[in-house]
Amino acid sequence: MSLSLTLRRASNFSAFLRSQLKSPGYTARISNAGSSAIHGCRIRRSLGREGRSFGRQMRVPRCSSLPLSRMFDSHPPGCFNSSHCQIPSVLPHASSFSVPQESMLIVPKSRTINSRNPPFPNFDLLARGFCHLNNEDSDCYSDSEIECGKSEDDDRECGSRVDSTEVDRVCKVIDELFALDRNMEAVLDESSFKLSHDLVLEVLGRFKQARKPAFRFFCWAAQKPGFAHDSTTYNVMMTILGKTKQFETMVSLLEEMAEKELLTMETFTICFKAFAAAKERKKAVGIFELMKKYKYKVGVETINCLLDSLGREKLGKEAQTLFEKLRGRFTPNLKTYTVLLNGWCRVRNLMEAGKIWNLMIDEGFKPDIVAHNTMLEGLLRCKKRSDAIKLFEVMKAKGPSPDVKSYTILIRDFCKQAKMKEAIEYFDEMQGAGCRADAGIYTCLITGFGNQKRMDMVYGLLKEMKTNSCPPDGKSYNALIKLMTSRRMPDDAVRIYKKMVESSIEPTIHTYNMMMKSYFQTRNYEMGAAIWEEMKQKGCCPDDNSYTVFIGGLISQGRCGEAGKYLEEMIEKGMKAPQLDYNKFAADFSRVGRPDILEELAQKMKFSGKFEASNVIARWAEMMRKRVKRRNPTNINGGHDHWPYST
Fold first, then answer.
1. In this predicted model, what pLDDT tens digit does every residue of 347-360 receive, in sequence order?
2. Where does each PPR repeat begin and end (predicted)?
C-alpha cells in the first residue's frame, strides 16, 4: 500500500597500511582539562602588586582586556610512540576479499581526466565556518557542513539529467535480483537503457547505504563496452566504501584510478575523511605519501582538510600532534589555526583551545568571525555560558561584529536550556542590528518553543517566516516532523511531510525514519509499512536505522517471518545486523518449527560480526531441533516446506 494513496485517505598499501588495515582501530583517549574560562582573546598571566598571580587576562587585539578566572597550566599534547610511516610508492591490489563481488575491476584503460573534477579544486574550508550547530544532541542545524566534502544530507542532489523512469527500472532490477541466485548482471545486460555517468551516479546514490549491491553494479558498469568510469563515479563509489570501512577495496580503487590518470584532489579528501571517521590517524597521514607518489602537491589547504577531518571526529589531540609533526613542512594560515581550535573545542578542552588562540595571535593572525564563533560555541559546549556572553559582548563592542551564525549559536543554547525569554531578546537584538534571520535560527526557536509545548509560538514563527520571505528549509521541516513524532502525533507529521514535498524540498532518510518510527510506536502498523514503501518509491535507500525500525515494527506485530526476510536482506546488502530482542525473535521462529531457518540466520549473523546475536539464535535453533525431533522424528522441519514470510 503506497503512502500517497493512504494519505489521500488520511602486498603493500604498503606493508604499513596493509598491516594497519588488519590491526585493531586506533582509539584516542582525550583528556578534557578542567574548568578554565576562556573568553577567546589573548591569554596572559597578570601579577598583583606583591607579585602573586591572581588570574589571567585575555587581550582582544586592539581592544580592552577581560578578566579570566581559574586558568591553570596544562600539559602539552601527548606524543605518539609510533614510528614514522614509510609508505612504499606502489599500492598493490588486495590479495583477496571476503566478498566475491568486491574483487577489483578489470576494464579498458581510459586516460581522460573528467572535466567536472579538476585535479586541484579550491578547498574553501572556512567559507561558512567551522562552528557546527548540528551536534549529536542538537535539534537545530547550521548550514556549515563539512567543507572539504559533503554532508550526509547533501548526498542527494537535485536537478538530475537522467530520466527517473530509467533509474527506477535499473534500481528495481538490482533490488529484486541482487540477493537471489539469478544473474543480476545478465538481466541488466538485456535491459534496454543507455548507460551514462549520470545514470551510474543516480543508481549509486540510491544504494549509498548498501555497499554490496552498489559495488556489484559499479563493477558491472565498468565492463560494459563503450563505457568507462570517470573521476566522479569512482569518487562516489569510494565514498560509499569509505563510510562502510571497506578500506582495502577503497585503496585498491584509488590505485586503479591512478593507473587510469583519474585521480583528483577529491579522491584523497575522501580517504582523509574515511580514515578520520574510523579514527585511523596513521592511515590518514599515509595518504600524504600517496599524494607525493602521484605528484600531487601537499600544501596548506590539503593539510587543513586532514586536520579538519580529524577534528570533526573528535580527534583534536591527534590533529594537534600531526600539526606539530608537519609544521616545518608547510606554512600555516588562519584556517589552520581555526581548524585546530575547532578540534579542541569539540572535545571540550578549553585549555588547549586557548593555547591555539594565543599561538594564532603570536603568529600575526587576527581571529576573524569564524574563529570567534568557534570559540563561542566551544565555551557553550563546556557550559561556560557567562564567559560566552562576555565574549559575545566584546564582539559587539570591539569586533568582529556578530553575524547571524553568532546569534544562532547563542540562541540555540538558550533554547536547549528552555530560556526562551532570553532567546527572543537576542533574536530581536539581531534583527535590530540589521542581521537578517535565516531558516536555521527560526528552526532553533521553533524547536525550543515546541519542546515547551508552546504551539501557538511555533505557528506564529512559521507565519513570520512566510511574511519575511524566509521559507522553511529541509532541516526546518525535519525539526517540525521530529516535534510532532515526539508528541506521538504521526498524522500531523505526515501533513508536514506533504507540505515539505509540495515545497519541492527533498525528504531525507531521517525524515522517513522519524515518521515510520512514530507510526509503529502508536501501533499503526499499516501506515508504518506505507512509509517504508513511500521511501523506496521516492528512491531513498533505507539505511541501518530504517531497517532496524521496520524490522522492529514487524516483530511487534508478530510477523517474524517477514522480519527475518528483511533481516537477511539487510545483512546481504552489507549492513550491520540491528540491535533487536533476538531472544523473542528466535523464540517466535522456533514456535513454527523451523530451526533450520534459525541456523541459516545464525551463520549470516556470525559472518556479519554479530556474534552475540548469532550465538543466541544458534542456541534457540538447537533447542527447537531437539524438541521437534522428539515430536516427529520423520520431519524435523515440522512439516513446513517454505519459510513463512507472512502471517
1. 999 999 999 999 99
2. 230-264, 333-367, 368-402, 403-437, 438-472, 473-507, 508-542, 543-577
Where helices occur in 399-473 by DSSP H, the ranges are: 404-416, 420-432, 439-451, 455-467
The size of the chain, in residues, is 647
Domain 297-402, what architecture? Alpha Horseshoe (1.25)
Cell of 596: 533450520
Q: Is the pLDDT of residue 191 over 60?
A: yes
Residue 472 C-beta-side C-alpha neighbours within 13 Å: 30
The rounded distance, in Å, linking the Cα atoms of 213 and 203 is 10
Asked if 289 and 320 count as a contact pair (C-beta separation under 8 A), the reply is no
Domain boundaries, the chain: 297-402, 542-632
Q: DSSP assignment of 260-305, as one string?
A: TT---HHHHHHHHHHHHHTT-HHHHHHHHHHHHHTT----HHHHHH
Q: Which residues contact 514 (CB under 8 A, 6 or more apart)?
A: 478, 481, 482, 485, 493
Q: Can you read off the three cell numbers belonging to residue 311?
A: 577534528
Q: Is the dihedral of CA 144, 147, 153, 158 positive or negative?
A: positive
**Residues 6+ positions from 184 with CB-CB distance below 8 Å:** 173, 174, 177, 178, 216, 220
Please give the mean pLDDT across all residues of the chain.
74
pLDDT score of 460 more than 90: yes
Q: What are phi and psi of 45, to 5 degrees?
A: -85, 135
Q: Which pLDDT belongs to residue 282?
A: 87
Residue closest to 44 by CA, chosen among 77, 74, 67, 62: 67
Is the peptide bond prior to 121 cis by the omega test (within 30 degrees of 0)?
A: no
Half-sphere exposure of 285 (CA within 13 A, CB side): 19
- Does residue 298 register a pLDDT over 80? yes
461 with 491: CB under 8 angstroms?
no
Mean pLDDT of 315-344: 94
Grid cell of 416 as nine digits: 536547549
Q: What is the rounded distance in angstroms from the CA atom of residue 326 to the CA atom of residue 303?
A: 9
Tens of pLDDT, residue by residue over 543-574, are 889 998 998 888 888 787 788 778 878 877 88
State the cell numbers at 294: 602521484
Q: How far is CA 443 from CA 321, 379, 450, 474, in A?
A: 37, 22, 10, 10
Say how many C-beta atoms besides its own lie within 10 A of residue 343's C-beta.
Answer: 31
What's the whole-model pTM score? 0.68
